Batch of 4 targets.
Target 1
Amino acid sequence: MWYNGDAGEKKNMVRYKEFTFHCSHCGYRFSMELDPEDVVKFQTGLFSMDDIMNYLSKDEKDMIYSNTCQTCWKNLFGEDD
């Protein structure tokens, strides 16, 4: 998947890659397409996920940050109202 933040600027094109994560509670595998550079930035601990992965939903960010799938998250913490 390609993403161009500004349709007129080719220099901003990003090649997304699929990353697979495992839920630390049930072992479920979930995949997301992410900018590889953003993954490296997040792993360094120097950048906030909200700042570098603003293209993800809150639920997607929570799953990556906590290694918890949506089903386990709901079982552990209940559903958001």
Target 2
Amino acid sequence: MHRKDIMKILQVCGGPSWGGIEMQTVKLAFILQNAGHETCVLCSASGEIQKHAAEKKLLTESGIFDPGKNWFYSLRRAKDVIRSFNPDIIHVQRSHDLSVIAAALRSLHKQTPLVFSRRMESRLKKKSPVHRLIYSRVDRAWCVSSFVRHNFLATSPMKPEKVFVMNNGIDLTIFDPGRYNKSEMRTQYGIPADATVIGMTGRISPMKGHADFIQAAAFLIEAARKKLFFVMAGGASVGEDAFANEIYALAKSCLPENSYCFIDHQPDLAGVLSTLDVYVFPSHRESFGNVLLEAMAMQLPIVSVNAGGVTDMITSGENALCVRPQHPEEIFSSVQKLISNQVMASQLALEARKRSLDFSSEKFLENLITEYQEVISQKKDGK
């Protein structure tokens, strides 16, 4: 890579929590750095982002929405970082950071391109004069799905010609069914070798559909003519331990003791997926659904809700069987079809794997870098 092609990219994501947006921020900075670009992550002091970014040896700066500090402190720190790092482009990952970065750029009289990723649906309308001023400084926005783009245009003052869809990408060298031996992985996780295994992945949170999955599992066990086992992989979301305990209690009351397991957060999610025969995605309303894409890449037959950002990946009857959100009886009947019709299950799984190839991390990175360069070029040309 020639020096002139190297970009200096400031990634901004304030807040102390650790969830999907924060993980994507660190992951994005890491892959950009590995691609030869200079990256800096501006985050909150002593937060999870700073910790995980440091583990990956990323350059970090703190000061945006630090605990106990006000907005003006964040503004001063943002100006300091922009002066010292002097980025070619600034990528903001959370909307609440836009006010600080837009104000910092204006007060510094900097024309540095400012781009924004919208990863979640919002129900708050932000079309006040203040919001119009903030968003007028954003040069381009990328939404994680068509569903989120529609929502973003309805709730923000951004002009449609500046808002695009950029789906997430996954590492297909990790999520590759050829890497794993199902029997060995079942032994590793204590999953019965002789069972038909149905599973779901994702943190335990009210919108993720664990209760629907458990109710469908109870229906399946009642109707079963073969041994079934159910896997739920993913621990409690931050601050939602009480809800997770409700889910554990529901499973205990609805399912036989040796018919299911919960697998907490762990790094080898592809390994967990390799133990399954059928994957279920019961989330009520998903902005995109990375875990669904990962299951598709692992060539699993899938039963999925047909709502939100899922429609960017799933075509009902082509690469998955689709159900309505919060209808466990439909999950039950669809899983029944798959476990009783191996030809259908295999065909759907092959089509799911084929579709997942469009979402490789390499394609995502190539697209993102092209977008960065285009925004930088347009800004220089005064467009």
Target 3
Amino acid sequence: MTGKAWQRQMREQIEQDERTDGDAYWESYDLDIGHAEVRPIDANTAREVIEQYEWLGKMAAVNWYCFGIFFGKALGGVAVYGPEYCENLGRWDRFGYTGKIILLSRGACAHWAHPHSASKLTRGSMRLLPARFEVVTATVDSRAGEVGTIYQAAGFDYVGSIAPPDITEITINGVTYSTRALRARYGTRSPKKLGEMFGPENVVAEKRPAKERYFAFRGGKVARKHNRAAIAHLIKPYPRRDAEAVPAQVYQGRLDLAA
């Protein structure tokens, strides 16, 4: 894949705008990554960063845990976790993941944050999750130019797409919803039923490519080995983009999620 990820483009644009306005407030921050701390935050605090930087521009329908990486008092990025949207359909039963899988549904860092912020935030936030979550999964969207650079740097395993090649995405009054969000909010994902609720002219259903998926494993050595073995046959080499287009926020190390 070539080109820059959407989030990187957004960070560059916001930095340019703020410098043009003469507001380089971050230059007074202590941006030593060794001094940065990852700690829980509330959903409203996470929302401010997600709405500014994230590709989808909004929080997920259901959010269980939110974490931020702080440089002193300054919030440099957020990670948001919630239910894995296929779990209630029994999708993960065959892997033995039901009841212990969680989705890293949203994540973004400010343009001024240290280049290793996303990796430290990912690893640090996962360590703060309740012990019952032994499996963490995350998806990337090719429409946003994403290949999962941060997940690769954090030692996740890549399995590509395990969903049908094309997914129906529905937009209502200009707002695009996932099928999970539609079920949670309106009780249906049927374009016909949604058209009856909002008017056919206000509901647009279109196909999009399926997202690609990464996994990471937590807990003791035996649990990590067992859970990874369940998807070993699906693991593929990491996808790459042109070297000069790789986002800067990469930490060259692997993830240690032992309890």
Target 4
Amino acid sequence: MTTTTETTATATTSSDDFARRLRDETAAVRFRRRVLGNSRTLDAGKRREIADLYDADPDYVRARKVLLNRKDKRVRECFSVCDRAIKYWESMTVPYSEAQKGLRLIRRDRIEEFEAGMQRLLDELGEAVAAADEVYKTEILPEAKQRLDKLFNAADYPASLFGCWGFDWEFPNVEPPSYLEQLNPELFEAEQRRIRGRFEEAVALAEASFADEFAKMIAKLSERLQPGPDGKVKTFQTTTVDNLREFFDRFRDLNIGSNAELDALVGEAQAALEGVDVNKLRKDAHERQTVGESMTAIYDRLNALMVDKPGRRISLEDGDE
């Protein structure tokens, strides 16, 4: 819990000091995935056949074929688990550097939770791949052969689906090696400056990322709550509100706190949706107007904040209670 004294200190902390705190409280985590490439470029002979149909120059024709039906529930699940793993990694972390987008920063006290969550997803992927492979040769391949007909080429397909999907993660050390300080002090100091710069960049990237995500969600809800040009009520999905509420939880969980204006706007949006029933929001004109006006006002102020202060900062401090 952050005390009043700590809050004041945070507000006056310099960018360099704040980056140092971020450096002390987080670890880098790299995520990599592999998925089955589900299309192939047609060979030159097939491209010439297509070009001849339209009297076109074969060099100006490009065409690809789909290998497997991604609507098949077993194939779809393999891709889906990999997608969920990426989203989970992103939900637990903040950006590190534009130059290293495969690296993100995670609070050190959440590494154990992250490891457990990723392992669960890895287990799910193993089950999904096993289920797909079980019917690979009896159902999935025959369907592809039937659909592609003369374009089917057995050489495009693996013998088994095991190993075609996967992901892994690691926690690389982004700090300069300690031996470098003795070996070459000047190079060690240069590396220290480079890493400090990366964490200063991370501070700005993280807050900008949250502000941008928040702005898009607020804008979407605000737009759906306004009547259409014909005066009719617009429809909206329950997820429009649910995603915002999930954002609030994640925002607080990652403890944004260095930018009082952004923190206040998120708090206002959360308060405006507190206790709001989505079904009532769809039907009650007064409720729609009240929430819609709040969202529009918040978006306008947020938009001004993003324009005026592109160098925002993010804090991983525990929030006030």
